[in-house]
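lol forgot to send this yesterday, sorry. struct tokens for the thing we talked abt
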């Protein structure tokens, strides 16, 4: 048994930031991560000879802590280039009946698809005249309607009507969070929006106020060399400050005796299906501490915390996430230099009666969005995403991705131009932050007081995305370090 100043279980971005916070406070934490490389869902790999992000690639600027962390680690941050678009499966309004269905529209300025200006001509391109008239009712109906709505869909429908929900908020918020807006707690996906509604008496004006309060420029930003450089920089800094990051260590149990936590871990072996998480092999090793942070993904966290009766989590089933897959294509095609759809395009989920020409749910033109990552290579990078909540697991191929990208970008792509590609699967991913889930998290937070020295962080607990996870991980580790 080795006694440690602090132990962090899980080396995703939440665990790394918790360990970094301990190390900054003068402690020597041990972080245990089951995979060979820390970073969790923030990871990159070389594709076609270029290192690119294959997991998360940006962070929301609404919380300033992520940019501040990058600066502290010496990483330059950069806003994305190029605007973004939404793909409608319907024919362009006014086009002849025999025109091919489907068209791309610029995304209007807004918050999760809620426009900040209903007079923006792009809004009139997306909504029918009736839909726009219904949305305008928001401006004069006072703060009452929708004020009690906990999920995003109820709020938007009550204020702006069904069309804004279906044609803007569902493709944009639903695309980002891989869940229908009815399954997204407003206060988690857009903190401050409901308070702004009360103040402004209109959801459109509330969205404008939320945007005005956020840092200038785009709503997201990234590390200029790729977001995958952030976990690497965190590992180096933890090491410099005297902490240690142990990879290929699977934690199998935690227990408390008085104020001392013991953590049992094993060497990580390959699961029979290499896509599954590593499995424990060999002799157990036990480390002890009085400061323990569990920073795992939700399922792994609940399975570990289930042994602590006081927390009452053994019957907790997380909301099911979506089975996502992504094809990253690196190719040489100068016709893409102009960025025909800017930084990318989100595809409207369903349009009754319209034939679908594409199966993808989104495409990111990564090399236009983050030009510095591929600077000097002459190559383009497309990340074509598949999968939505409630539909069968997608198995996209390179050919599917090229066909969909050709339609969405309006450029017929040639397989011969492809320098490399990678298909990545994210099973049961991004469990939605439903109001019920948040209520259970609040209950568990209260119960944690019965387990001194223990903290929980990670997206399932703190909220999805780096802007939620990083400040939360910092706060819980600071509290334990005191
Ligand atoms: C496709 C995709 C794209 C995304 N894009 C963005 C984006 O652009 N911007 C954004 O802000 N967010 C994005 N997100 C969400 C974001 O990536 C996550 O919210 C965040 O990275 C979660 O970090 P985490 O530390 O909570 O968990 P994870 O990254 O899941 O880390 C948990 C870690 O625990 C380890 N682990 C599991 N079990 C054990 C065990 N028994 N012992 C030891 N270690 C274990 C895992 O290997 C993993 O490294 C995206 C998510 C997905 C799926």
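and heres what i got for the seq, position by position
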């Amino acid at each position: 048994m080795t006694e440690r100043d602090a132990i962090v279980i899980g080396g995703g971005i939440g665990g790394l930031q918790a360990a970094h916070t301990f190390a900054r406070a003068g402690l020597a934490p041990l972080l245990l991560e089951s995979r060979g490389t820390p970073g969790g869902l923030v990871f990159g790999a070389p594709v076609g000879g270029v290192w690119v992000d294959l997991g998360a690639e940006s962070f929301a600027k609404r919380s300033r802590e992520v940019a501040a962390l990058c600066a502290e680690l010496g990483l330059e941050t950069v806003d994305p280039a190029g605007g973004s678009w939404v793909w409608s499966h319907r024919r362009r309004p006014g086009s002849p009946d025999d025109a091919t269905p489907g068209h791309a529209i610029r995304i209007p300025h807004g918050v999760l698809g809620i426009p900040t200006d209903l007079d923006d001509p792009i809004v009139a391109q997306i909504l029918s005249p009736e839909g726009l008239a219904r949305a305008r009712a928001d401006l004069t109906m006072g703060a009452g309607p929708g004020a009690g709505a906990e999920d995003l869909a109820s709020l938007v429908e009550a204020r702006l009507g069904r069309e804004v929900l279906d044609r803007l908020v569902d493709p944009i918020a639903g695309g980002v969070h891989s869940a229908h807006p009815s399954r997204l707690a407003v206060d988690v996906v857009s903190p401050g929006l409901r308070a702004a509604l009360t103040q402004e008496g209109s959801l459109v004006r509330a969205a404008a106020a939320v945007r005005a309060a956020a840092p200038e420029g785009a709503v997201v930003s990234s590390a200029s060399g790729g977001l995958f450089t952030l976990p690497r920089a965190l590992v180096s800094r933890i090491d410099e400050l005297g902490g240690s990051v142990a990879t290929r260590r699977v934690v199998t149990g935690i227990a408390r005796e008085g104020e001392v936590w013991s953590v049992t871990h094993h060497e990580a072996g390959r699961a029979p299906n290499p896509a599954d998480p590593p499995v424990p092999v060999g002799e157990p090793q036990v480390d002890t501490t009085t400061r323990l942070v569990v920073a795992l993904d939700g399922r792994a966290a609940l399975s570990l915390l289930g042994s602590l009766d006081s927390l009452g989590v053994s019957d907790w089933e997380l909301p099911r996430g979506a089975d996502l897959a992504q094809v990253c294509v690196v190719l040489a095609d100068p016709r893409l230099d102009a960025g025909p759809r800017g930084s990318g395009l989100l595809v409207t989920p369903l349009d009754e009666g319209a034939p679908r020409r594409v199966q993808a749910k989104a495409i990111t033109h990564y090399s236009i969005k983050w030009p510095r990552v591929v600077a000097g290579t002459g190559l383009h990078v497309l990340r074509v995403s598949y999968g939505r909540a409630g539909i069968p697991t997608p198995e996209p191929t390179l050919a599917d991705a090229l066909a969909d990208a050709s339609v969405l970008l309006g450029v017929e792509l040639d397989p011969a131009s492809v320098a490399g590609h990678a298909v990545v699967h994210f099973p049961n991913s991004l469990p939605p932050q439903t109001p019920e889930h948040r209520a259970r998290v609040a209950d568990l937070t209260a119960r944690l007081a019965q387990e001194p020295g223990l903290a929980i962080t990670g997206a399932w607990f703190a909220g999805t995305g780096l802007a939620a996870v990083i400040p939360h991980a910092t706060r819980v580790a600071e509290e334990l370090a005191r």
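The chain has a mean pLDDT of 93. anyway ping me if u want another try
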